[in-house]
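Dear colleagues,

For the upcoming journal club I promised to circulate an example of a predicted protein-ligand complex. I picked one with allantoate ion because it came up in last month's discussion. The inputs are reproduced below in full, followed by the predicted structure.
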Amino acid sequence: MAEFDVILRNGYIVTEKGVSKGDIAIKGGKIAAISCIDQLKGTAADEIDVTDQYILPGLIDTHVHFNEPGRTDWEGFETGSKALAAGGVTTFFDMPLNSHPATINKDAFDLKFSRGLEKSLVNFYLWGGLVPSNINHLQELSECGAIGFKAFMSDSGIADFKACDDVHLLQGMEKISELQSLLAVHAESQQITEHLTNTLIRRGDTSAKSFSQSRPILSEIEAVQRILTYAKLTNCKIHIVHVTSSEVISQITAAKKQGVDVTVETCPHYLSLTTADLAEKGVIAKCAPPLRQAKEVEMLWDALRNGEIDIIGSDHSPSPPELKEGDFFTAWGGISGAQTTLNILLEEGYWKRNISLETIVRLTATNPAKRFKLFPQKGILDIESDADLTIIDLNESFVLKKEDLFYKHQQSPFLGKKFRGKVKYTLVNGKLVYSSLKEKIR
Ligand SMILES: NC(=O)NC(NC(N)=O)C(=O)[O-]
Ligand SMILES: [Zn+2]
Ligand SMILES: [Zn+2]
């Protein structure tokens, strides 16, 4: 009988610390051996030759909305997780909203969790929600295994997931701190966005430019300053999601220096698309907070290069095409991006801006694993780590076509974009879940 289940032969093994040439053996869903100097001895039931290809820890996408149960016609665990597998993602954290019922108590958590277990091709964890009405359910959600909690400081766009006012934020943060959990925050100011939206709509301007003006960077700055203050007051660990601007990141860096336990996430679309793309591509590229100007995108890359960004999550938040129509104020806000995170980082980061593979691994796998207590089981390629990994060929390129997308709705603001670097295989717990050679999911 073969000693190992799988051996990956002759690849470049990438961790946040460096790249080395070698072989990886997998047994029982874990990495069983790594050999960098001599060829790994032993045999396996399956051997994959990955000469000249790069083996990365599978990505951990901390931010997706798969909307199941309740809005499975928008996405779903099956289609969403296939898209992730094809994009090299081996673990995701599903957001508590857009699914119905929203994940704000144990019953809703259990229902969603069982659906995920049945249908997801990759590993997953669930976020619990913090809404004004569920402070008494935070403990049970934490005991169910919620990876953390998510709250909105401005309207979420979904009626059954209410934004928190300041009093509820403070109450929730006190409880979450007591539970030693973490609060992820959608930090845009309700007051500023509501006021500007009303003013601009009254003027009858529903253009892309007007939508961008209704949600300025200042609105993020105000909300982030407030939540950082509350974090100091309550000692609650926080994670600021989908930040669009280096100015906001500077605020967070300053708070870190003062001892606030805060991390920051941005998304591939804020690193690759601009207000000009929003005007050109239309509501397919609408999201909140909105895309920013090209110079902001470059400053975001500078912040990333300086080590000021902790995590990159996709914030995949699709809807059926009929909701992605109409004007910039009424159309659904959310970008489909779960499948293309690594592609964007390779094309826009590695190739165009000289960002190392180590940095990409740190932002998409190691840091998420560390922040959410999954390290060293995940986020690294090491003996006894879970065999969650993805293998890429940097020399292959492709143009993204509709047919490539595994989403329920084959929509993406990146259609027609040329990407250098291709995911060849994705393994989850040692099992091959995606192979580009077969162009299908097992
Ligand atoms: N209801 C949503 O899915 N919202 C999401 N939508 C975006 N980002 O446009 C989000 O994370 O805020
Ligand atoms: Zn959000
Ligand atoms: Zn989101």
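Two points we might discuss: The chain has two domains: 4-55+384-395+418-441, 59-371. The mean pLDDT is 97.

See you all on Thursday,
B. R.
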